[in-house]
Structures are given as structure tokens and as C-alpha cells.
Specification:
Bound molecules: acetyl coenzyme *A
Oligomer: single chain
Order of helices and strands: HEEEHHHHHHHHHHHHHHHH
Strand content: under 5%
Radius of gyration: 23 Å
Structural class: mainly alpha
Distance between the termini: 37 Å
Low-confidence stretches: none
Helix content: 55-70%
Largest sheet: 3 strands, antiparallel
Number of helices: 17
Length: 392
């Protein structure tokens, strides 16, 4: 193309900030319908799946593409339990990671996932078969909580707990944390949370995983990038902050003044608002139910604070359509089930590994390098270098 043709060629189209409303791929994994307050995994209502199915059934649905029958579920669970074993080289290094100061469990998980990728010799997805990518996906999902809990305990001076082979993903998650078989009610509450957060459309971390996969890179690299994207408070970092709000409010009578002052001073209420949902976030509806079933003072306070926050947002941010998001009750559920606050986002990362790996498998299966453009708005090029400007 000569210079005249280039000048006439249509330039790239500028997408809206945050890529809002722009579809960048086709997917069969699932979708979020923000206006309806509905999301699904491969066509099945995700809230119904969380209410009626085990972690492994939904994990199978997302990674294998179909709901398993009971035999398939048993086999998938047994296979995933075997895959919980860590490579020796990695086990030896986990205490070192756990003693890096400050200890941030999500950062530690990101580092450990990277190590597992190296220690298991993950190769670029473009050099291996779809079946190999899928096997790696299941393995990485199975080891993520084992890595996380081993480092968390090591940081506290405790020995890691071997996951009980009798327990499924959710119960083993709590057992590896505490060293005890969990109360089934807590395990089921956590299982519902984990299923609800496995996937959620083309969110920032899933998009990140897909961008990395589109370069043909290995699956571990995609997960490391996705965890980085998840770490931001605007994405996965809110549940402990939402709980902090409850602590700061302390008693129901203080809620209105506290929340009003926050919003009036330009701050955001953690656990409210969503880029896609412009009505109730269906995840928050089920998690509210789970939190209230588990009961306790914190759940009661949360319900009052939620109602008050919605009233305040309506008064001070009218027409913005701000509702409770998944993070608000997630913190209450996890806290009641005994998960420490600094483990909230890492817990989210573990369940979302299912969605990330499904997205990486899909991207690797129908790949085209994701390489958008930007519109240059700086000084017109080429700018002359300042006179006398020299190599230093
Ligand atoms: N509290 C107070 N005001 C809010 C909130 C909130 N939580 N969320 C949005 N607003 C206001 C904004 O101040 C803005 O008001 P303005 O029009 O007067 O400027 C208006 O609503 C629109 O806000 P945007 O930033 O355009 O909304 P966006 O879609 O970009 O943001 C987000 C979505 C980032 C989740 C936002 O609602 C937020 O910051 N929430 C708090 C953090 C949070 O809960 N994060 C977890 C999200 S869930 C998840 O990722 C799994």
C-alpha cells in the first residue's frame, strides 16, 4: 500500500472506554444477561446449577461441555482427586513463597501456579492437542486449592494438610484450611459460592486469559495473567472490603449516616454496582439466601446494611441502576464458613480457574491472535528530536 492509499484506508474503529457493549468473540461456555439478571453455563441457569449440583458436576459441564451422569461424575471426581498431588519440586518451594513478606495469599497463588506450570513442563497450547490442554486444565484446577492452603498454613507455621480423598472439591477446600472435616452445612454453602463464581461471561480476567492463550502460550501463563487481572478491587478484590464496611458500621442504627457520608464524599460502596447487571445480580440473590440460612448477627446486619445502601444509592445516585453485586454476601458466607478474609479473593480465584481454563481451551481450539489497535492522539508524528539531542 503506498502512502496515498494508506491515508485513504479506513482506520481502526474506536471502541467505547472499557470495551462496554463490544463483543469480541463467540463462545459456548456461557453468558450474562445483565438486563434480565440472569447468567448461565452452557445454557443451564447457573443459579439452579449452584442450588442443585456438586462442584464436580458443574466443573465437568464447563470443561467437558456437558452435564455428567452419575457414573461420569464419580469418575471425574476420582480423577480430579488423583490430580491434587503436587510435584515434589513445587512442594519444597511453597514454604519459601509463604515466607515472602508481606504474605499476600493471592500473589502467592499466582507465583505457585507459575511454578507448577514450569515443573510440569506445560508447553505452548499451539504445540499440543486439545485433549492435552484439557488434561492440563483439570490438573491446574485440582492443584490450585492445594497450593493455596499449603502456603496459607505454612505462613502460620502449620504443616500442610493432605486433602482427604473421601472429600469432594468444596469440603476438601475447607479441610485443607483447618485440618478438620468441615461441617457439611458450611461445606455446602461454600460449594454454592464456588459454583456461582466459576464463570461469568467475558469479564476482565477471562478476557486476559484468552488474550494470553491467543498468543499460543501455555495454559499456566494464561492463569497467571488472569489472577493478576482478578487482583484489582474493581474485579475480585472487593469481598473483604464489603465485610470491612460491615465492621465499620458495627450496628444497624449507624448504617444510614455512614453509607450516606461515604457516597456523598465520592467513595464507592463495596459490593454494589456492576458493569453488566442493571438489576439484581442473581449471584447476590442466592448468596443472600445462603447467608441467611447459615444465620448469625453478621447476616442480619448485612441484610439491614444492604437495604440501607440501596436506599442511599437511590437518593444520591438516582438513575444509575446500582444493585447489590456478588461480593456483598460472598464475604458474609465465607466468613461464617470459617474462611479468613485474606483468603476471599484467592477462593474466588480457585473457583474461577474452572472458567479461565474452559476459556483457554476454547480459545486454543479456535484460535486467532487477539491484537487490537489503538488510536494515537499524541503530538503529530514524526516529531523532530530536539536540536543537539545526543546518545547518553
Ligand atoms: N458506590 C457508589 N457509587 C457507585 C458505585 C458504588 N459501588 N458503583 C458505581 N457508582 C456510581 C459511579 O460513581 C458513577 O456515578 P456518576 O455517574 O455520578 O459518576 C455511576 O455509578 C456509574 O459508575 P461507573 O464507574 O460508570 O460504573 P462501572 O460500570 O464502570 O463500574 C463497578 C462497575 C466497577 C463494579 C462499580 O460499580 C464499583 O466500583 N463497585 C464497587 C466495587 C465492587 O463492588 N467491585 C466488585 C464487582 S463484582 C465482580 O467483579 C465480581
Amino acid at each position: 500500500m503506498n502512502a496515498t492509499e494508506e491515508a485513504k484506508a479506513p482506520g481502526p474503529v474506536l471502541a467505547p472506554p472499557g470495551l462496554e457493549g463490544v463483543a469480541v468473540a463467540e463462545t459456548t461456555i456461557g453468558d450474562v444477561r445483565g438486563e434480565e439478571g440472569f447468567f448461565h453455563y452452557r445454557g443451564y441457569n447457573a443459579v439452579e446449577l449452584a442450588s442443585k449440583c456438586s462442584f464436580e458436576q458443574v466443573w465437568h459441564l464447563l470443561i467437558e461441555g456437558e452435564l455428567p451422569n452419575s457414573e461420569q461424575t464419580k469418575k471425574f471426581r476420582a480423577d480430579s482427586i488423583e490430580l491434587r498431588e503436587l510435584p515434589d519440586q513445587v512442594s519444597k518451594l511453597l514454604p519459601e513463597i509463604a515466607h515472602i513478606k508481606p504474605f499476600v495469599p493471592l500473589d502467592a497463588l499466582r507465583t505457585a501456579i507459575s511454578l507448577v506450570g514450569s515443573a510440569t513442563g506445560l508447553r505452548p497450547t499451539m504445540d499440543i492437542s486439545a485433549e492435552e490442554v484439557r488434561q492440563q486444565a483439570v490438573r491446574m484446577t485440582a492443584v490450585a486449592p492445594v497450593l493455596l492452603m499449603a502456603m496459607y498454613r505454612s505462613h502460620q507455621g502449620l504443616e500442610p494438610v493432605t486433602p482427604d480423598p473421601e472429600l469432594g472439591y468444596a469440603a476438601a477446600y475447607l479441610q485443607m484450611l483447618t485440618g478438620k472435616r468441615p461441617d457439611p452445612e458450611y461445606a455446602r454453602a461454600v460449594e454454592k459460592y464456588l459454583i456461582l463464581t466459576m464463570d461469568h461471561g467475558f469479564n476482565a480476567s477471562t478476557f486476559t486469559a484468552r488474550v494470553i492463550a491467543s498468543t499460543g502460550a501455555d495454559l499456566g501463563s494464561g492463569l497467571v495473567g488472569a489472577i493478576g487481572a482478578l487482583s484489582g478491587p474493581l474485579h475480585g478484590g472487593a469481598p473483604s472490603r464489603a465485610l470491612q464496611t460491615l465492621d465499620e458500621i458495627g450496628t444497624a442504627d449507624r448504617a444510614y449516616d455512614y453509607l450516606r457520608e461515604k457516597v456523598a464524599s465520592g467513595q464507592r460502596l463495596m459490593g454494589f454496582g456492576h458493569r453488566v447487571y442493571k438489576t439484581d445480580d442473581p449471584r447476590s440473590t442466592l448468596l443472600r439466601e445462603v447467608a441467611l440460612e447459615l444465620g448469625g448477627e453478621q447476616a442480619d446486619l448485612a441484610q439491614h446494611v444492604e437495604q440501607t445502601a440501596l436506599q442511599v444509592l437511590n437518593e444520591l445516585k438516582p438513575g444509575r441502576r446500582l444493585y447489590t453485586n456478588v461480593e456483598f454476601y460472598a464475604g458474609v458466607v465465607m466468613n461464617t464458613a470459617g474462611i479468613p478474609r485474606d483468603m476471599f479473593t484467592p477462593t474466588f480465584a480457585c473457583s474461577r480457574t474452572v472458567g479461565w481454563t474452559a476459556a483457554i481451551c476454547e480459545q486454543a481450539g479456535h484460535n486467532r491472535l487477539i491484537r487490537p489497535s489503538a488510536i494515537y492522539v499524541g503530538p503529530p508524528p514524526p516529531q523532530p528530536l530536539p536540536q543537539g539531542y545526543e546518545y547518553v
